[in-house]
Design a protein that fits this description.
3-stranded antiparallel sheet; elongated
Length: 187
């Protein structure tokens, strides 16, 4: 077994152990997508894994990335996708009793996938628009706050532009940071 396949297996086992310790039954499978490991999680309780605003899922993502990266010399990028038969927005599954708000309920089935992968196109456009504004006016622009994976997309989108520099700010609530885009200084 090569290291890449081994990494996917280790990441899947790590997440399964974490969810089992919390009493959440899951089936986790790992696969490779380019240079990153994608963990697909099936559960009847996706809301517990995702949490309000994706906070719990962000924490699982952070912990699995740290644990798995600690086992290898090269950093490993792990992305978690949650699938489930329950509605991740808190609606009732078919056949469940109780009051629900029809305006907020959405149907979910076993084929639904809740992906936390950042909308790369939107983030790249935001970064390029901010860089264009900085070049035009010369004043630094702060955008955000963003999660680590979102910041990675923004920094990468502007990395090839030598007239611009990016800097992540201090940690805010939920491990998010703002990014300041400014004109590059002469060294």
């Amino acid at each position: 077994m090569n290291q890449s396949v081994d990494t996917a297996v280790v990441a899947a086992e790590c997440l399964e152990k974490m969810t089992a310790a919390l009493g959440i039954q899951t089936t986790v499978s790992g696969s490779l997508d380019g240079k990153r490991v994608v963990l697909s999680v099936k559960t009847d309780e996706p809301g517990r894994l995702i949490g309000r605003g994706g906070r719990v899922l962000n924490n699982f993502d952070y912990l699995v990335n740290r644990i798995v990266s600690g086992k290898y010399e090269q950093p490993v990028r792990v992305v978690i996708d949650v699938e489930g038969g329950a509605n991740p927005r808190g609606g009732k599954k078919e056949g469940e009793e109780g009051k629900s708000r029809p305006d907020r309920e959405t149907k979910a089935d076993e084929n639904d996938v809740v992906s936390r992968q950042p909308d790369n196109d939107r983030l790249e456009k935001l970064a390029l628009d901010a860089a264009k504004e900085v070049k035009r006016w010369g004043d630094p622009k702060t955008i955000g706050p963003f999660t680590a994976s979102e910041r990675r997309v923004i920094h990468a989108a502007l990395a090839s532009d030598t007239t611009i520099q990016t800097q992540s700010g201090d940690v805010m609530a939920g491990n998010k940071k703002k990014i300041t885009i400014s004109l590059a200084t002469a060294e």
